[in-house]
Write a structure and sequence with these properties.
By secondary structure, the chain is of the alpha+beta class. It has 13 helices and 23 strands. The two termini are 19 Å apart.
């Protein structure tokens, strides 16, 4: 995004109230893609109105899919079937959406036309070889810029099903393989070194594709059919995470987060925070389209540092920036290992969070795959988010416990995943506002 946007965040009173965070970004991407390939018309409710998901919708429209928006948070997709997409004369711009690009690479690998996937400056630096190589093993032909976008996908390459074992614990990589497998003869199987979230598997099942899966594996036959269905997108757990930690850290706080998605491969943060002493209660559990959801009641609690279990890392990889903030406010030391993936997200999240927390008075020692965080007292100051939406929101939460205001630079990209964050945060008690030009100088 081009416009500069800084925030000023202050400590304030206890956080109170109830809220619903926007729809899950991962599910919103997948719902659009599978609905586009289905026969019939699908309605997606609770759709995330973020820039990442809108980019995916625009790309599918470029490929000939009719998508309408009857109201905010709703999309109606008229599916064109597995072989109904049409070539686009223009590149397909994913913006900042790494999920969109990696999943679309799998989907487009099976088409009979060429495609070019591009992204913004941040996405253009993110590693894509992790999807290019397994897709090539299925027969796809994809050119890149030394393993980075743009991706030039050559159509007409016959895909051959096979069993693959992924080297990286990534639901995006697994999903790209499965989407390519829709177009392959035979059974495509993915085995993972560590189980990752199973959104794609659950949604393929909901759209009628015969798929078998369990923790750490999935297998599907190619050349079947998807059938339209309605999708209710639950609240995004990664977005809820900022409020979970905020209510935990601010004395006297109690928040009710309604209708949060609790996919078992997504909620490692709850287990880690509970091990640190957090008071998080799951209320009214239910199911939406095969996805478990519930309300979360969070009350203030004092935290203690722990060693984060390596087996939890893949289940909370997007939540580490806000966990770093929780660790900064805990008593004692928190140790993180096994999270090298954080260095190739929208930013190097280990470096960005370590630098920002040090600027606020916290002792953080980086290591190649994590950090050691010594809990302490946060002071005010200025931090850089480096255009990373999750880091920006994490620093806004950190300021709730700081002794003076915190200025957070480069926050415009928050709109990619959490449009309306500022208003929702202020509604439950955050003292957060956009910096003036004079404050930014």
């Amino acid at each position: 995004m081009s416009a500069r946007l800084d925030w000023i965040s202050h400590a304030g009173a206890a956080l109170r109230g109830s809220l619903r965070v926007p729809g899950d970004k991962s599910i919103s991407h997948r719902a659009l893609m599978l609905a586009a390939l289905a026969h019939g018309s699908s309605r997606v409710s609770g759709f995330l109105e973020g820039e990442d998901t809108r980019a995916t919708a625009r790309i599918l429209q470029q490929l000939g899919v009719r998508i309408t928006a009857p109201s905010a948070g709703e999309r109606v997709i008229d599916g064109v079937g597995l072989h109904g997409l049409r070539a686009s004369a223009q590149p397909l711009d994913c913006g900042n959406a790494g999920t969109g690009m990696r999943l679309l690479a799998g989907l487009l690998a099976g088409q009979d036309f060429d495609s070019v996937l591009i992204g913004d400056a941040s996405l253009s630096q993110r590693p894509m070889r992790r999807v290019i190589e397994p897709l090539a093993a299925l027969g796809a032909r994809i050119d890149s810029s030394d393993g980075r976008p743009p991706l030039r996908i050559h159509g007409g390459a016959p895909l051959r099903a096979r069993a693959l074992r992924t080297a990286i614990a990534s639901a995006q990589v697994k999903s790209a393989i499965l989407l390519a497998g829709l177009y392959a003869d035979g059974v495509t199987r993915v085995d993972e070194a560590q189980p990752t979230r199973d959104y794609t598997e659950r949604m393929l099942q909901a759209f009628g594709w015969p798929i078998e899966f369990g923790p750490g594996w999935a297998a599907l036959p190619g050349r079947q059919s998807l059938h339209a269905c309605d999708v209710q997108v639950p609240g995004d757990f990664s977005s809820a995470a900022f409020f979970i930690v905020a209510a935990t850290l601010v004395p006297g706080s109690e928040l009710l987060l309604r209708d949060v998605g609790l996919n078992p491969r997504r909620t490692g943060l709850i287990e880690v925070l509970r091990a640190m002493g957090a008071d998080i209660r799951i209320e009214a559990p239910r199911q939406h389209g095969g996805e478990p959801t519930a309300d979360l009641r969070v009350r203030h609690a004092d935290l203690r540092g722990i060693e984060v279990p390596r087996e939890q890392v893949a289940d909370m990889i997007d939540e580490f920036p806000i966990l770093f903030v929780a660790a900064a406010c805990a008593t004692g030391v928190t140790r993180v290992h096994g999270a090298a993936e954080l260095r190739v997200k929208e930013s190097d999240r280990i470096a960005v969070m370590a630098s920002g927390l040090r600027a606020l008075g916290i002792d953080v020692q980086e290591n190649p795959d994590g950090a050691l965080i010594q809990g302490g007292s946060l002071r005010g100051g200025a931090v850089e988010s480096h255009g990373d939406h999750r880091c920006a929101m994490s620093f806004a939460v950190a300021a709730l416990r700081a002794s003076a205001p915190v200025r957070i630079a480069d926050c415009a990209n928050v709109a990619t995943s959490f449009p309306g964050f500022e208003a929702l945060a202020r509604g439950v008690g955050f003292d957060l506002h956009v910096a003036t030009q004079a404050q930014m100088a």
